[in-house]
Write a structure and sequence with these properties.
The structure is a homodimer of 640-residue chains. In chain A, the strands form ten sheets. In chain A, strands 29, 30, 31, 32, 33, 34, 35, 36, 37 and 38 form a ten-stranded mixed sheet that branches. A six-stranded mixed sheet of chain A has the order 16-13-17-21-20-18, sandwiched between helices. Chain A has a five-stranded mixed beta barrel with strand order 22-25-24-26-28. Chain A contains 16 helices and 38 strands. In chain A, strand 20 and strand 21 form a beta hairpin. Chain A folds into five domains: 162 residues, Molybdenum Cofactor Biosythetic Enzyme, Chain A (3-Layer(aba) Sandwich); 52 residues, Alpha-Beta Complex (Molybdopterin biosynthesis moea protein, domain 2); 74 residues, Beta Complex (Molybdopterin biosynthesis moeA protein, domain 3); 80 residues, Beta Barrel (Beta-clip); 194 residues, D-Maltodextrin-Binding Protein, domain 2 (3-Layer(aba) Sandwich). The two termini of chain A are 63 Å apart. Chain A is an alpha/beta fold and 640 residues long. In chain A, helix 3 packs parallel to helix 6 and helix 8 packs across helix 15. The first copy, chain A, is flat, with a radius of gyration of 34 Å.
Chain lengths: 640, 640
């Protein structure tokens, strides 16, 4: 085809150093020049130089106590049997804490150790040593001493130290101005303008907030269409007043070409395509003395590429090293694949199951920003490796350095809308507890609990032989373990159909009609097992159900597919149908249970969960979704 | 005496919960009400409620690739030997990544897999499955799904998720307004106005920046004198428009009484005096629906009390828990005492020496803000404990969660100005390496190296028998160890005297003159050993040297005492004299050496130090201080 789809995939670290070297060669100034700011406005700014004290603190010999300044010689030998009297004004001077010590005096007697015996006469019964209760000059800071090193991020106490060291203003590194140009014909600024062809531009907003949280000064340009001349004119404007320029591309490969074309017109491209995933279609260049980056349009790719290229340069401009993440060693709960030649970034949830820290990989598509929002950290798989086996010990970079692993509860297994509500109630009850649900289907959930890769499995599995739910599966998959099964809810499964049921779908049998398109759930999910049982017991061959191969991983995605018209029907729960304005044809009642090992069931976190399950407020809230009966929620169904 | 010096020392946690309970009783609203802000301005704000998606992302079935949308049925059986032709417009429609899939099409063929064989005719040689290369509706976010929980601090990717979920604005918790009233007759705003009686007001600046970094909105009132009526009028104004009011007291006990008096006039005092050190003189009250805090005036006490009382309330107002620090287990390098009945906060430096993490306690006086600036974390000693033994394993709360322990180099031993300069050069060379110097004197430094409580000892110890420096001490104190001694500098010790030497001091013998006041160094310091040797060899009895008992821990503090007139002379180095504008009477040349165990000497960090010691820039800089000769700097003097 005519389009150039070739990208050079330079290894990530090499791409960065090639680019930075080219920037330095071109005269980009790392760090930037300094500017003077008021100390009281200097929080989080970066010192441009070593700062030595201009003044001592305390600047004079001062009293460390409220009391009287005395000449220590005169107090020698004082005792209860030999009290010594001092005349105020001559032998003693009242001082408050912090007051300068008058000349000629060399110690302070605390106010508690005095008694007044006449108008101006005080009595003491203990001697004081020379310099007792006196703060020497510079006890805190001595003039000329180093207060703060160069390239230090100013924290609250530093502000106090600077003022006490005699500084009203301080030289800091100027904040780098980062211009961000959002492009994309398919994009709109306001979510209200999104429709069936337009989506919201969010990358520039994420990037702006990244730049400002790392100490830069972002300028977000107006959103413009994928039009080379329009982009070029914004770019020229940006180049004039910026320390760095970012072109946020659209999602199509064509958009990337515009960016590359424009950059090479005003400077040079150093790297086009980086061996990382997501984030591959990065363009790194330098125009004049301005580093320029073309970022890919998919949200997760945009974020990861910005994190690897934009933020480190913001930090270089400030004279700081690249941000370093807190690292945690964890056992991988699932095998992850990785492409040779690409450093892969895999979002993970972290949890402590028993004594082990577990890393649970989340979705990786470059479009799935929520996998970033929901994750606790990222696993980086080097370019030369094809992936990691399940159970391998890996190092995870944690996003929030004060992240509390013990507070994370990993719920794996089947997806249910009400688990989000359970999570909310739990966190409001105890902010430390965060219930994360990772949707892998009921059977994988049971296996995860058995293998200590998750705390709780949410399951709804019908036994084809007995028509009963869950217990036979639990007995089989958790054989040999000490476990407990608690009822969560009874809920109604049925066919989710368009509002008004325009195609008049009434039963499972209707799904073989040639005018209907079905949307299925993934293998191993309870709903898929139910569906296969429903068609199997009716003797329906899957190939007769058009759309049987199209799988989505959640109830709500089934409902969304139906609501948006990309399918006519799917099997799912009433709550999902209702929340997306679909109609619903009830098919069967099922039991949704929570399965956990006994150790965890007996702990504090699980007690808090049981409390929520029994909370009438919680039950009312879930039942209001429709199709739920929580009257047995929190009851122990089976234990072994 | 007339003044009320009685404080009730309520245990810290109890004080906090008594106060919070009283606040809740009084109707203080935790969390505050919500307000609507633009999503693009919502970074670091706190969600006021669960946020469920209003819109799916992608909102429609869309292409995951650049290519053509096709009907998968038509591609069945395509192969190299059986290419299938498709007519653009009828069988195939060009789509870019992210474009909606036109109705009737159910898969995408990637552009790389196409060849054009005629004007509108494309050929493919591989089939596609139904839904291949297609992003389902809601692949990222499904309408109605939970995007962010309640009371969640919004991070950059969350901003993207909110926009994609259909939100242009978001409900966040209003920022609490915290009014801060700085009081103190002894204080001035501008460091330029500080003199022999006035010191700079810094507490309100530190506190303001603490409040804003934890999400509050500080209002700093004008600095006012310790005058009850003036304070009262600021306080009334503050009460009207604030969610919390802080009175930052002066340093004297009298000031605290004003605060308590005023608070009880407009509301009630819940706690007066907390069992913590520093920070004891805290007043906690509630006036109407406004929590009120009186904070002590000493900088470190002010900080610790604010950290324990003000910040947790700011967080409560936001619906967040108290900040949790990263904890590190470390071995205590020195015994620390603690008073029964007080929870003690001890600033520590942290370093990894060999395989052990060491915590080195720093100064604790409530006035020494620099010990906070220089420390890496804090050790909290519970109220019921008299202290911890040296070598005990303790838990340290680290301030910076991404603090890199391995980059810390602990230099213990004698103080020398040039070590600060070495630290600066080293960090500029490698920002990871931070050389911290803890001044304990030469001999304690040697012991610390022997006991693996520090990496490097700076020593200058004269052998009274030979008049030679350091090596005999190293052999004795490090006997049995593998060590290395490197030359740092030769430097000149002498008498630091006032500018112009007004008292005409010419020799050690002059120090016995009755018109002279001496300032001494602490026992165990090299300079003290030198001084005792100097007077001993001259047969001078210490009691004849007036001021012999007055000890300060550094050369610069000696010079500062002389410069400020609180002493006439002290023994110290030329650089210290010169930096504080004093005159200098040279007495002797000495060798300042760096001593370390061989393991550390052979590591990367120490190589970087040696490189700096040999750097002509560095030598020039240190020699410019005066009295230094660095021509042998970095040379190995002794190894064992």
């Amino acid at each position: 085809m005519e389009r150039d789809v070739y990208l050079r995939n330079v290894e990530l670290n090499k791409a960065f150093s090639l680019w930075i070297d080219a920037c330095i060669q071109a005269g980009v100034s790392f760090p930037l020049e300094s500017e003077e700011v008021k100390v009281s406005d200097s929080l989080s700014r970066v010192t441009a130089d070593e700062i030595f004290a201009k003044m001592s603190s305390p600047p004079f010999v001062s009293s460390a106590m409220d009391g009287i300044a005395v000449k220590s010689d005169m107090t020698k030998g004082a005792s209860e049997s030999n009290p010594i009297r001092l005349k105020v004004g001559r032998d003693a001077v009242f001082v408050d804490t912090g007051d300068p010590i008058p000349a000629g005096f060399d110690a302070v007697v605390m106010i508690e150790d005095l008694s007044r015996v006449g108008e101006d006469i005080l009595e003491i019964i203990k001697p004081v040593y020379p310099w007792e209760n006196i703060r020497p000059v510079g006890e805190d800071i001595v003039q000329t001493e180093l207060v703060l090193p160069a390239f230090h991020v100013i924290r609250p106490p530093d502000i106090g130290a600077l003022l006490n060291a005699g500084y009203a203003t301080v030289r800091v590194v100027r904040k780098p101005v980062v211009s961000i140009i959002p492009t994309g014909t398919e994009l709109v600024d306001d979510p209200a303008d999104a429709d069936d062809e337009k989506v919201v531009e969010s990358n520039s907003r994420v990037l702006s907030s990244m730049v400002s949280s790392w100490g830069g000064s972002p300028i977000r340009f107006d959103l413009i269409p994928d039009d080379e001349r329009v982009i070029e004119s914004s770019f020229i404007k940006a180049l004039e007043n910026s320390d760095m320029v970012i072109i946020n591309g659209g999602t199509s490969a064509g958009s990337e070409d515009f960016t590359a074309e424009i950059i090479s017109r005003y400077g040079s491209i150093i790297v086009h395509g980086v061996g990382m995933r997501p984030g591959k279609p990065v363009v790194l260049g330098v125009c004049g003395r301005v580093p320029v980056v073309g970022l890919p349009g998919f949200p997760l790719a945009n974020f990861r590429a910005a994190e690897q290229f934009v933020i480190p340069v913001v930090r270089n401009f400030l004279g700081l090293g690249s941000p370093s993440a807190r690292k945690v060693e964890a056992f991988l709960a699932r095998k992850v694949f990785s492409s040779i030649g690409f450093e892969e970034f895999v979002q993970v949830k972290i949890g402590k199951v028993g004594q082990r820290i577990i890393a649970l990989p989340l979705k990786r598509g470059s479009g799935v920003l929520m996998s970033l929002v929901r994750s606790d950290g990222v696993l980086r798989i080097p370019a030369g490796i094809e992936g990691y086996e399940k159970g391998r010990k890996v190092t995870v970079d944690i996003y929030e350095p004060d992240f509390d692993i013990d507070g994370n509860i990993l719920t794996v297994g089947s997806h249910d809308v009400s688990i989000d509500i359970l999570a909310s109630f739990l966190s409001r009850k105890n902010p430390r507890l965060r219930l994360a649900s990772v949707n892998v289907g009921s059977i994988a959930g049971l296996l995860a609990v058995k293998n200590r890769e998750g705390h709780i499995a949410g399951v709804h599995l019908i036994d084809p032989e007995t028509g009963k739910y869950n217990l036979s599966y639990v007995r089989r998959y958790l054989h040999g373990e000490k476990y407990a099964v608690f009822r969560f809810a009874s809920r109604t499964q049925g066919l989710i159909v368009k509002k008004g049921n325009p195609k008049n779908i009434k039963s499972i049998e209707d799904l073989t009609r040639s005018d209907l398109l079905f949307v299925n759930r993934q293998k191993g999910s309870g709903t898929r097992i139910l569906f296969d049982l429903l068609i199997g017991s009716r003797g329906i061959d899957p190939s007769l159900v058009s759309g049987y191969e199209s799988e989505v991983p959640t109830h709500t995605m089934v409902a969304a597919a139906v609501a948006r018209g990309s399918a006519d029907a799917g099997l799912g729960i009433l709550a999902a149908a209702r929340s997306l304005g679909c109609d619903f044809v009830p098919i069967s009642e099922e039991k949704f249970d929570l399965v956990t090992l006994k150790d965890f069931a007996e702990g504090e976190s699980f007690s808090a969960i049981i409390e929520v399950l029994k909370d009438p407020e919680f039950r009312k809230r879930v039942e209001s979704l429709g199709g739920y009966d929580l009257s047995e929620a929190g009851e122990l169904v089976l234990t072994e």
